[in-house]
Write a structure and sequence with these properties.
With 189 residues, the protein is α+β, with helices and mostly antiparallel strands. The chain has three helices and ten strands. The strands form two sheets. Strands 3-4-5-9-8-7-6 form a seven-stranded antiparallel sheet, sandwiched between helices. It is elongated and about 90 Å long.
Length: 189
C-alpha cells in the first residue's frame, strides 16, 4: 500500500473513533439528564401514579380538597408560581353517574366559576387509567396573569377521578411532556 492510502485509512479510522467517542459521551450525558420518577400510592389504596423526582408533595393542609398535589421546583428566585398537578377523588351522585352527564356538569361548573375568563382550548373524549374519560384544556384569565389548565377525568363505580395540571400560560408548554407522563402513569386500583 502506498503512503497516501495509509494516510487515508488512518484518517478514516480516526474519524470513526471520534464519532464513536462523541456518540458515547452524548448518550451518557443524555441518560444522566433523564429525570427519575417516583411512584406514589394513595394512602386509601384508590390510585397510584408516578411523578418527577424533583417535584414535591404539597402539605395536605394546603391541597384545598385534593387527595394529593405535586409541585414543580422553582425555576429561579423570581418564580412566583410553581406549576402543580393534583388528583381529586369525589363521590358521584347517581344522577351524574355516567360520563356524559358528569362531563357536562364539570364543564358547566368551570364556566360558572371562571365566567367570561374561561377560554376552552380542547374538550374531547380521552381515556384515563384505561377507562373512558374526558380531556379538557382551558385558559383561566386573571387581571395580572393567565393560567392554563389540563384536566382529565374518568368514572369508576360511584367515584370520579380527576387529574389536573395548572401552569401559567407562558410556561405551560415546557411541562407538557412530564405532565403527559404523569397522566399516562395514573392507575385506578
Amino acid at each position: 500500500m502506498n503512503k497516501r492510502k495509509h494516510e487515508e485509512l488512518f484518517y478514516v479510522i480516526i474519524s470513526i473513533v471520534g464519532v464513536l467517542v462523541i456518540g458515547t459521551v452524548v448518550t451518557l450525558w443524555m441518560f444522566g439528564q433523564k429525570r427519575e420518577y417516583i411512584r406514589y400510592k394513595d394512602p386509601q389504596g384508590r390510585f397510584l401514579m408516578e411523578y418527577p423526582s424533583d417535584w414535591t408533595i404539597a402539605d395536605k393542609n394546603k391541597t384545598q380538597g385534593a387527595e394529593v398535589v405535586f409541585v414543580s421546583p422553582k425555576e429561579n428566585d423570581l418564580d412566583f408560581f410553581q406549576e402543580n398537578f393534583s388528583v381529586i377523588v369525589q363521590d358521584v351522585p347517581k344522577h351524574l353517574n355516567n360520563l356524559d352527564m358528569y362531563t357536562k356538569t364539570a364543564i358547566h361548573q368551570m364556566q360558572v366559576v371562571f365566567k367570561s375568563n374561561l377560554v376552552i382550548l380542547k374538550s374531547e373524549p380521552a381515556p384515563l387509567a384505561g377507562r373512558p374519560g374526558h380531556h379538557f384544556v382551558f385558559l383561566g384569565k386573571g387581571p395580572d396573569v393567565e393560567f392554563q389548565y389540563k384536566i382529565q377525568w374518568a368514572l369508576d363505580d360511584s367515584k370520579a377521578y380527576q387529574v389536573t395540571f395548572t401552569a401559567m400560560s407562558s410556561t405551560y408548554e415546557n411541562f407538557v411532556p412530564k405532565v403527559e407522563m404523569m397522566m399516562k402513569s395514573f392507575k385506578i386500583l
